[in-house]
Write a structure and sequence with these properties.
This protein is of the alpha+beta class. Helices cover about 25% and strands about 30% of the residues. A hairpin with a 2-residue loop joins strand 1 and strand 2.
Length: about 110
């Protein structure tokens, strides 16, 4: 299982996981209760119910670099282009825009 923390403007907004059933995104309860809470994407409205899909949510997939930058990421980290979650976790900690994605290591679990 792969897990990552999703940040919005530097604030922990939710958790994204990949397992044998697909992908799940869940907003943190503390984030939802915050007066500054907002959705990370129009396609993932703020709420307490988890979102599930068989493929990586288009919003998160859109954060992954393309073209020559993707080639560099694949070669440097030896990540298969079809492993979208690993690419997201490797390349999108500090990407352009308000959202960042950080992998959760086994030590943090």
């Amino acid at each position: 299982m792969k897990r990552a923390i999703v940040y919005l403007r530097g604030v922990r907004a939710g958790l994204l996981t990949e397992d044998e059933n697909g992908y799940t995104f869940t907003y943190d309860t503390d984030y939802i209760a915050s007066d500054k809470a907002e959705s990370v994407s129009l396609t993932l409205p703020l709420g307490d119910k988890p979102y599930h899909d068989k493929v990586l949510f288009p919003f998160f997939d859109g954060l992954i670099p393309e073209g020559w930058l993707l080639d560099i990421a694949e070669k440097n980290w030896k990540i298969n282009a079809h492993d979208r979650m690993s690419l997201l976790m490797a390349c999108c900690k500090d990407c352009i825009g308000a959202v960042g994605v950080e992998p959760i290591t086994e030590e943090e679990e």
